[in-house]
Amino acid sequence: MTDIKTPSVSNFDQETPVTAANNARKKSHFLLLAPGVFWMILFLVIPLAMMVYVSFWTQTTFAVNPTLTAKSWITFFSSETYVNALLRTGRLWLTVLVLTFVIGYPVALFVGQLVRSETLRTILLVTCVIPFWTSFLIRVLAWRPMLGKEGAVNILLQKFGLISTPIDVLLFTEFSVVIGLVQIYVVFMVGPIAFMLGRIDHSLLEAARDLGASTWTIFRKIIFPLSLPGVAVGAIFVSVMVLGEFATPAALSGRKVNLLGNIIVTQVGSLKWAFAAVVGVVLTIVMALVITALLRIVNLRKEL
């Protein structure tokens, strides 16, 4: 009989070159991910967990102690002032989001589709961010002399005979806060949309024209659907920044319009850490819901 040679146990234990290469690749992937994971745990997961934990601490007038209680949460949701601040934050966020889209999309469409020169497109996008070369406070406070009762807008409207007396609702109202927020954050809507519009293959549009599609049909069926990932990214940028705003409402409303961000600043200034943590958790949940909803509208993993 012929002896059948079976592989020895040592042959199974021995790593083949392919297996060794795969293991080395996996180790390099883990090493590359490690700094990011460490950073996220240290500066995102742990602070969020601490914020939730502190929100259940017992807050007294001059101190806070780690005895767990839901008193701060009950105070927040039973107070008309804080619930109204939550609703006002949502209303202003939605208004600013819609306005930044309405104003930003045509600009992005011009830059991304109508400008064929890459150099000119870059110049136009850089022009959009030139205001960011100045201080944030200067850009916000510059609206005061523009919108004031004796500001530039009222002077021009009176000069052209459009109004007889100055309009006093332009400043220190929600209207002025919306104007300031839209002016500051509209560029964050323009950039991602222009980027996605610039990636559209022009041969696709030419083929649609050759088949008799009108300009409106091409926009509705091709351009707008392909630009939706940019709209989603821009909406996420604008939403996260507007929902966390506190400086612009304070400067342009004279502290008459309080958003959740303003309440956090006030509570931290009063050393009421537990209540500030409650508002912080509520704001984080609102942001998470908004981002989740936007990501469900557009599947960025598939589209990008």
UniProtKB/TrEMBL annotation:
Compartmental location: Cell membrane
Ranges for domain ABC transmembrane type-1: 86-294
PROSITE patterns: ABC_TM1 (PS50928)
Pfam family, one: BPD_transp_1
SUPFAM superfamilies linked: MetI-like
PANTHER family attached to this UniProt entry: INNER MEMBRANE ABC TRANSPORTER PERMEASE PROTEIN YDCU-RELATED, INNER MEMBRANE ABC TRANSPORTER PERMEASE PROTEIN YDCU-RELATED-RELATED
Family statement: Belongs to the binding-protein-dependent transport system permease family. CysTW subfamily.
Protein name according to UniProt: ABC transporter permease
Organism: Sneathiella marina
